[in-house]
Amino acid sequence: MEKQSYDGQLRKQCFSIPELCEAQIAGIKKGLETTIPVENLQRVRKIILTGCGDSYLAAEASVPVYKKYAGSFACNFEAYRSIDVARNLKLASEAGETLVIAISASGGPALSLIHIS
User: Nearest Cα to 79, choosing from 93, 69, 65?
Assistant: First the structure.
């Protein structure tokens, strides 16, 4: 069996994931650097990951990864549905120490999170 005989778009896409991840991480880093001052990022102690539907499941699944690789950045990582973050989470006492990351394919979580900013 020759693996090249089974070359296709899905196989090529799988092999492109490391390069894609590097580009996405660089984009996230640039986005953070241009939108949030470094002094504010250094004060973050709690990170809330959120999303709707499949994006919420991605947020929930990424919590252990954040804890493993970014545990020194913040002491608390949690995942909530974006509607719960927008309606129920009281950030007043810890607003300067909390970073909310909304995962979205459509932009829906960003719209519902406008209420807490």
Answer: 65
Q: Is 31 helix (H, G, I), strand (E, B) or coil?
A: helix
Q: Any bridge partners for residue 109, and if so which?
A: none
pLDDT per residue of the chain (117 residues) written in tens, 0 to 9: 676 677 788 888 888 888 887 887 788 778 877 888 888 878 888 888 888 888 889 889 988 888 887 776 667 888 988 878 777 666 556 566 888 888 887 765 555 544 444
Ramachandran region, residue 92 (left: φ > 0; alpha: ψ -120 to 50; beta: rest): alpha
For residue 48, what are the CA distances in angstroms to 11, 45, 91?
Answer: 34, 10, 11
Query: Whole-angstrom Cα distance, residue 13 to residue 3?
Result: 15
User: Which of the 8 DSSP states describes residue 105?
Assistant: S
Distance CA 57, CA 79 (A): 9
